[in-house]
C-alpha cells in the first residue's frame, strides 16, 4: 500500500515510524513532515488544508490511504472532500467526516452530544453576544474557579480558567463582544469547574466497533509543578498509574461505549481516533473534551506500546472489521519529555541547530518542530523534539529520557525536569 500522513509534528513522526515498520506499506509520504519523518518517509511540501494539492499528490503517487494527524483538515472536511470526488473516493481516509469532527470543532456541539447520551461531564450553558447579560448572571450562580471556553478552534488557547468573578465577567465580554478569539468565540461555553486529576483515553473506531488504546497523561503547563502558561504538551506517561482496572471499566462502560453508540444514533460518520480528555473526580471519570485525532505528545508514548502492525489496524478501521483485531500492548511503561524552544509558548526563535541526536542510546527521538536545512537539523517550532523511552516502571523510563537529553543541545533549549512528579 501507498500511504500519506498529513501533519508535521511529533505525533506524525510517531505515525510514520510505526507505519514504516509494516511490511504492508510500500511507499510512505508525509505532508509536510519534518526532519524525523524524512528518515522513514518522503516529505512533500504541501499544507494539511491544501486539499487540491493533496488530491494531486494522492493521484500522482497512487496513494491508497490517508492518515490525518491534526484536527484542522478534519474540521474543514478533508474526509468529505475525498468522498465527494469520483477520482479519489476509493482512497481510505483515517479521520472522521466533518459532521463528526464538530465534536472538536465546537465545544457546544460536544456538550450537547454528551448530555444527549448521558455521558458524565461538567454542567454548562452557552452564550452569544446577545446573551452576554445572561452569561454574567450564570457566572454569579457558580462557585470559583470559572471555566470559559471559546466554542470553536482556538489553537489550544480557547479555555480560560479564572478565580475572580469580575475577571470572569470581563473575560466573557472580551470573548463575545470584543471577539478575543475571532470567529472561535462568537459562542462561549461556561462550565462548572471539575476538581481532579486528568488523563487521556484513546479509542479507535470503524464507526461500529471500537478498541481502546493504552491511557496516557500529558503535562500541559510550561512550568514545573504544573505552573505557568498552557502549551501543546511538555511530556507524557503511559500507562497512567492511577487508572486501575476498576476505573478503566468505568471509563469503558460510562464513556467509551455510549460515545460510539452515540455516533451511530446521531449518524456521525466516524472512522478514526477518538481522544477523550478525562478528569477523575473522586473515583469517577468525567469528560472534559473530545478531540477527533490522537494527542501530541500522548501519541509518542501510546503507539510505542502498541505491538500490532499499525497498517493492519488502520485497514480494519477503514474496512469496518475492527472487531477482528486484537490490540496487543507492550507491558512496559513509556514516557516522553518534550524539548522546546526558549520562550515557548510565547515568542521564540527558530533555525537553531540541534546537535547530539545521533548520540542518543536506548531512547527514541521523535522530531516535532525540527526540519532539515542545508544538511543540518534545525528548530522550526516551539515544541522541537520528544524523547521517548521504555522502562519497567515509568520512573525508569523517565530517567532514561533525561539521561539522553544531557547529550542534546540547541540554543535556548528548555524542558520540564519534573514529568511524572504528581503520580
Ligand atoms: P481543553 O483546551 O478543552 O483541553 O482545556 C484545557 C484545560 O482546561 C484542560 O486540560 C483542563 O485542565 C482544563 N479544564 C477544561 N474544562 C475544565 C473543567 N470543567 N473543570 C476543570 N478544568 C477544566
Ligand atoms: N496533548 C494534548 C493534545 O494533543 O491536545
Structural class: alpha+beta
Give the CATH topology of the largest domain.
D-amino Acid Aminotransferase, Chain A, domain 1
Bound ligands: adenosine monophosphate, glycine
Rg value: 21 Å
* Corresponding CATH superfamily of the largest domain: ATP-grasp fold, B domain
CATH C-level name of the largest domain = Alpha Beta
Strand count, sense and barrel status of the largest sheet are: 6 strands, antiparallel
The share of residues in helices is 25-40%
The counted number of beta strands is 23
Count of the domains: 3
Unreliable spans are none
Overall mean pLDDT: 96
Give an account of the 3D structure.
This protein is of the alpha+beta class. It has 3 domains: 2-97, 3-Layer(aba) Sandwich (Rossmann fold), CATH 3.40.50; 123-191, 2-Layer Sandwich (Dna Ligase, domain 1); 197-405, 2-Layer Sandwich (D-amino Acid Aminotransferase, Chain A, domain 1), CATH 3.30.470.20. 29% of the residues lie in helices and 27% in strands. The protein has helices at residues 10-19, 37-40, 51-60, 72-75, 78-83, 98-105, 107-116, 132-141, 165-176, 245-265, 299-302, 310-319, 394-405, and strands spanning 2-7, 27-32, 42-43, 65-68, 92-94, 124-128, 146-150, 159-162, 187-191, 197-205, 210-212, 217-218, 221-223, 227-230, 235-238, 272-281, 284-291, 333-341, 364-367, 370-373, 376-379, 383-391, 413-414. Strands 12, 15, 18, 19, 22 and 23 form a 6-stranded antiparallel beta sheet that branches. The chain has a 5-stranded parallel beta sheet with strand order 3-2-1-4-5. Strand 2 (27-32), helix 2 (37-40) and strand 3 form a beta-alpha-beta unit. Helix 6 packs across helix 7 (107-116) and helix 8 (132-141) packs antiparallel against helix 9. It is globular and about 60 Å long. The two termini are 41 Å apart. The model has no long low-confidence stretch (mean pLDDT 96). The site of adenosine monophosphate (AMP) has 12 residues, from strand 17. Glycine binds at residues 218, 232-233, 291, 295-296, 298.
Amino acid at each position: 500500500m501507498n500511504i500519506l500522513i498529513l501533519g508535521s509534528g511529533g505525533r506524525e513522526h510517531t505515525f510514520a515510524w510505526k507505519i514504516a515498520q509494516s511490511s504492508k506499506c510500500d511507499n510512505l509520504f508525509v505532508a509536510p513532515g519534518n526532519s524525523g519523518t524524512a528518515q522513514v518517509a518522503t516529505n512533500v511540501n504541501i499544507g494539511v488544508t491544501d486539499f487540491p494539492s493533496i488530491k494531486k499528490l494522492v493521484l500522482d503517487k497512487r496513494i491508497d490511504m490517508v492518515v490525518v494527524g491534526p484536527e484542522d483538515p478534519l474540521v474543514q472536511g478533508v474526509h468529505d472532500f475525498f468522498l465527494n470526488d469520483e477520482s479519489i473516493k476509493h482512497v481510505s481516509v483515517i479521520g472522521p467526516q466533518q459532521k463528526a469532527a464538530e465534536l472538536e470543532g465546537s465545544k457546544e456541539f460536544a456538550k450537547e452530544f454528551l448530555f444527549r447520551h448521558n455521558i458524565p461531564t461538567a454542567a454548562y450553558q452557552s452564550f452569544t453576544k446577545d446573551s452576554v447579560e445572561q452569561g454574567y448572571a450564570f457566572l454569579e450562580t457558580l462557585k470559583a474557579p470559572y471555566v470559559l471556553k471559546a466554542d470553536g478552534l482556538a489553537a489550544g488557547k480557547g479555555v480560560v480558567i479564572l478565580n475572580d468573578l469580575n475577571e470572569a465577567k470581563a473575560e466573557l465580554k472580551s470573548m463575545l463582544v470584543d471577539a478575543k478569539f475571532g470567529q472561535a468565540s462568537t459562542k462561549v461555553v461556561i462550565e462548572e469547574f471539575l476538581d481532579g486529576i486528568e488523563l487521556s483515553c484513546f479509542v479507535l473506531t470503524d464507526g461500529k466497533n471500537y478498541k481502546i488504546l493504552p491511557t496516557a497523561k500529558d503535562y500541559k503547563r510550561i512550568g514545573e509543578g504544573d505552573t505557568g502558561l498552557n502549551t501543546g504538551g511538555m511530556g507524557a506517561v503511559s500507562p497512567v498509574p492511577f487508572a486501575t482496572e476498576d476505573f478503566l471499566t468505568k471509563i469503558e462502560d460510562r464513556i467509551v461505549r455510549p460515545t460510539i453508540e452515540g455516533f451511530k444514533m446521531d449518524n456521525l460518520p466516524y472512522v478514526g481516533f477518538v481522544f477523550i480528555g478525562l478528569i477523575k473526580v473522586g473515583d469517577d471519570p468525567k469528560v472534559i473534551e473530545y478531540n477527533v485525532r490522537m494527542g501530541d505528545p500522548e501519541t509518542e508514548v501510546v503507539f510505542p506500546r502498541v505491538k500490532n502492525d499499525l497498517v493492519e489496524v488502520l485497514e480494519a478501521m477503514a474496512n469496518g472489521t475492527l472487531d477482528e483485531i486484537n490490540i496487543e500492548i507492550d507491558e512496559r511503561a513509556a514516557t516522553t519529555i518534550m524539548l522546546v524552544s526558549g520562550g515557548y509558548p510565547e515568542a521564540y526563535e527558530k533555525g537553531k541547530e540541534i546537535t547530539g541526536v545521533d548520540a542518543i542510546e536506548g531512547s527514541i527521538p521523535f522530531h516535532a518542530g525540527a526540519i532539515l536545512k542545508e544538511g543540518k537539523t534545525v528548530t522550526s517550532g516551539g515544541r522541537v523534539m520528544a524523547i521517548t523511552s521504555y522502562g519497567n516502571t515509568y520512573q525508569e523510563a523517565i530517567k532514561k529520557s533525561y539521561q539522553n537529553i544531557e547529550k542534546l543541545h540547541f540554543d535556548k533549549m528548555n524542558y520540564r525536569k519534573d514529568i511524572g512528579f504528581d503520580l
